Amino acid sequence: MTETNNTKQKVVVYAFIDASNLWQAQKAKGKMFDYEKLKAFLKLKFDASEIQMFYYTAYPAEGTREHNLDGKHKFYTYLKKGLGFTVRKKELKRITIHSEVGDSIQEKGNMDVEMTIDSIHYMKKYDTALLFTGDSDFLALVTYIKNGGKKAYIFSSKNNVSQELRTGGDGYFDVLDLEDDIWGRDLRHMGNTE
Q1: What is the pLDDT at residue 12?
Q2: CATH number, domain at 63?
Q3: Are 111 and 90 in contact (CB under 8 A)?
Q4: Comparing C-alpha atoms, which of 108, 59, 53 is closest to residue 84?
Q5: Is pLDDT at 48 greater than 80 in this prediction?
Q6: Is 1 contained in some domain?
Q7: Would residue 5 count as lying in a domain?
């Protein structure tokens, strides 16, 4: 059997999601993303024969919050086992800041290096990279991906994306303006019982 010119080209898409960047969009929208819907939307939008999703997040250390963190870890398990995501997570680093008025704790949980390593490591496996971030530091990665003959699209929100990154990829999508239904439940804040 011979193939015709009408044979559809296989497009492999890898999405790299910076959870802290998307958190800002979710707060602005007042809704949580439905990651199952988001994955289906991306597969359809980019006509992908295969899609791989990577999710990067940092979480608070046990005992540093008044509320229980089990829900966060159950969510990560759902992404991994329920939706087939690769979840990269680490505990927030707690740094003591000394000042004239006393000591305070600052938390940091940047996942940019992990996201960059995966984007480069898997580059031979995908045709298109979707970067869910707004940080201008990723412009170098976008340039690297494009110079490697791949497509790179940016997903963020107008309130949380640098001008350089918004214009540096093969396209930009403001997640707040996407008309497709990628949203889930309303966002509830701690202490809100309604």
Answers
A1: 97
A2: 3.40.50.1010
A3: yes
A4: 53
A5: yes
A6: no
A7: no
Q: Are strands 183-186 and 31-33 parallel, antiparallel or unpaired?
A: antiparallel
The single-letter code of the amino acid at 90 is K
Instruction: Determine the structural domain holding residue 128 and report its residue range.
Output: 12-186
Count: domains in the chain: 1
Dist CA 107 CA 59 (whole Å): 10
Contacting residues for 104 by C-beta, under 8 A, at least 6 apart: 96, 97
Contacts for 173 with CB less than 8 Å, ≥ 6 apart: 153, 154, 155
Helix axes 139-147, 112-121, angle to 10 degrees: 0
Q: 108 - beta bridge partners?
A: 93
**What pLDDT, in 10s, does the model give residues 114-150?**
999 999 999 999 999 999 999 899 999 999 999 999 9
Q: Note whether residue 2 is domain-resident.
A: no
| Single-letter code of the amino acid located at 25 | A
**Interacting residues of 56 by C-beta distance below 8 A, sequence separation 6+:** 16, 17, 18, 19, 88, 89, 111, 114, 115
**pTM (predicted TM-score):** 0.84
Query: Is 97 among the domain residues?
Result: yes
Question: Is residue 19 a contact partner of residue 56, using CB atoms and an 8 Å limit?
Answer: yes
